[in-house]
Write a structure and sequence with these properties.
With about 260 residues, the protein is α+β, with helices and mostly antiparallel strands. About 45% of the residues lie in helices and about 20% in strands. The strands form 2 sheets. It has a 6-stranded antiparallel β-sheet, with helices on both faces. A two-stranded antiparallel sheet has the order 1-2. A hairpin with a 5-residue loop joins strand 1 and strand 2.
């Protein structure tokens, strides 16, 4: 039943019960029961023409995440400090096991060809925001990734076997940052890791500028800013966690596990 929600996309935001019957091969009574339960729970809302769209519970959940996520409590002030220097965009992303999601996008360049608003997923193995996170994952998670996503890893140029995969990621860790134009050839992104605890990567901060305005000396400067921002956010996250723990409150950190 929850899988029905995956059908609601930007391309097809409206579905009727009859279309669900046809698309999923469900019995009519089953499809109507699913819709009824999802509607009553607030996950679906009625639309014109007998269709349904995603419902108000998602708006409520999003507000709760914004207010409860420690990353969104400590990172925005640091991003604000960098806004004028970056003069482009900053993307804050979190890791959720088999996906990397944009949690916050701060754009100051009106000509920036960037569409990474909150909730937008990044490919797991392409692009600076994802690769810098993957590089710092523990060995057992990397082995699971290779086992379950071997072709994607090879297609991304990260290696055809464990030795090659590990070697490429070690090089990224040694650098402490990742520079890429993989997702958009018109921009340069410089990403650094964010840690919720020592050696426990949870997110990344990526500074982005249009290639047309980037000078050769700009990239090392962006690397320095990104790594400093990642370190400062990590420090505040860990201090936030210590403070919340001593006060008996939950820090609400996601603890990603591979979905498949």
């Amino acid at each position: 039943m929850l899988g029905v929600l995956d059908l609601f996309t930007l391309e097809e935001p409206v579905w009727t019960a009859d279309r669900l019957v046809e698309h999923l091969g469900l019995a009519r009574a089953t499809a109507y029961r699913y819709v009824k339960v999802l509607y009553e729970a607030g996950f679906l809302a009625p639309a014109a023409g007998g269709g349904y769209v995603l419902g108000p519970r998602f708006v409520e959940f999003d507000r709760q995440i914004r207010l409860a996520d420690p990353l969104l409590q400590v990172a925005p002030s640091i991003i604000a400090e960098l806004r004028d220097k970056v003069a482009g965009a900053q993307v804050l992303s979190s890791f959720y096991g088999d996906r990397v999601l944009s949690m916050l996008s701060d754009v100051t360049d009106p000509k920036m060809p960037l569409q990474m608003e909150r909730g937008r997923p990044f490919p797991l193995f392409f692009g600076a925001p994802s690769r810098i996170i993957v590089a710092y994952l523990p060995t057992y998670q990397l082995r699971n990734l290779l086992l379950n996503h071997g072709k994607e890893i090879a297609d991304a140029g990260l290696g055809d076997n464990w030795q090659e995969f590990r070697t490429r990621l070690k090089a990224i860790r040694r650098a402490g940052h990742y520079v890429s134009s993989q997702l958009n050839k018109d921009v340069v992104g410089v990403a650094a890791p964010i840690f919720r605890a020592p050696n426990a990567v949870t997110a990344s901060i990526c500074l982005v500028r249009r290639k047309s305005v980037v000078k050769p000396e700009d990239v090392p400067m962006m690397v320095e800013w990104a790594m400093d921002a990642g370190a400062r956010i990590s420090e505040r996250l860990q201090a936030f966690q210590r403070g919340a723990s001593s006060g008996g409150a939950s820090t609400s950190f996601p603890t990603p596990r591979l979905g498949r």
